[in-house]
Amino acid sequence: MSITCDAMAFPQSGQVELAEIELPEPGSGQVGVRTLYSGISNGTDVWVLTGLYMDVPFPIVPGYQKVGIVDRLGPDVKGIREGDRVFLSFTEIDSPLHPFWGGHTSYSVTDADGVLPVPDELDSKDAALLVMPATGYHGAAEVMPINSGELVVVIGQGLIGQFAAQVSRMRGAKVIVTDVSDSRLEYSRRYSADCVVNPLHEDVGEVVRSHKSDGADAIIDTSANEKALNESFEWMKPRGGRYCLQAYYPDLTCLDLYMPHVREITFYSPTGVTDEGMRRCLALLAAGDLKVGPLITHTLTPQQTPAAFEQLVEGPGEMLGLVIDWQQ
What we know:
This protein has helices spanning 44-49, 124-127, 131-143, 159-170, 182-191, 204-211, 226-232, 258-262, 275-287, 305-314; strands at 2-9, 17-24, 30-40, 60-62, 66-73, 85-88, 98-100, 107-111, 116-117, 151-155, 174-178, 195-197, 218-221, 242-245, 266-268, 296-300, 321-325. The protein is of the alpha/beta class. α3 crosses α9 (275-287). The longest helix has 13 residues, at 131-143.
């Protein structure tokens, strides 16, 4: 027996379609989950779609974050009941498509120990983007030390940058963010940062030194922009600064390491998330200490999603947080 469901598929690089796929019945220790919302990663999903993510096995079902309702229990499942609302990242797939990671599906079959309960206070749409705040949390709270009273600069204000900024402020830092999109900076001004700078119109270094004369204590890059990276080394304090390479860097990024050498900058290169960080972020989102809801700019039907992906490839424009509503 198998389960038929809908999925967002990338048949090959640059192609997006809504497809029908087959999933296995839940086996031992597995659950079946009816998807409510899946969250789009504007970074990873687009890197995958364009073939720039390493080792993409087309054809695939992308995505790694969604929320749904458990409605089937395989043998030997403990601690989970039918009707529970959970967050999950993966699904098993029986069709010829590869689950990379299989997040954008209307139904999921996954290991019970891989789901996280969603707090009652947390909206399902907000929880569907959990990996975004958890990634920012991993870099700014679990990998690179940030201390109260420090000055932190975050480059790029997509969702990862927004949450890197929010987490840095939560840890007591003053946060300056940069982006070339004024609309993203407006969201940052409201929810994520103490000061926003568009480098097309202002000298970021001057702004940084106006807040702290010897420069930033820490910088978090979420842009993967080579020019911005090299310029930002000059914003750092003379010694003991920390630099977090939080973006995905698919191409050769040429760094001028003279300034990091002279200023004795320590680099951190976090990747992914941790289970503890995900659980912590669920609690922070439920308490309102991290803000994701106001950053969701588009709620898409599955039929609207291929066009949205095409727009993301061309340039996100006004798109920031995107979720797919599978409930129809």
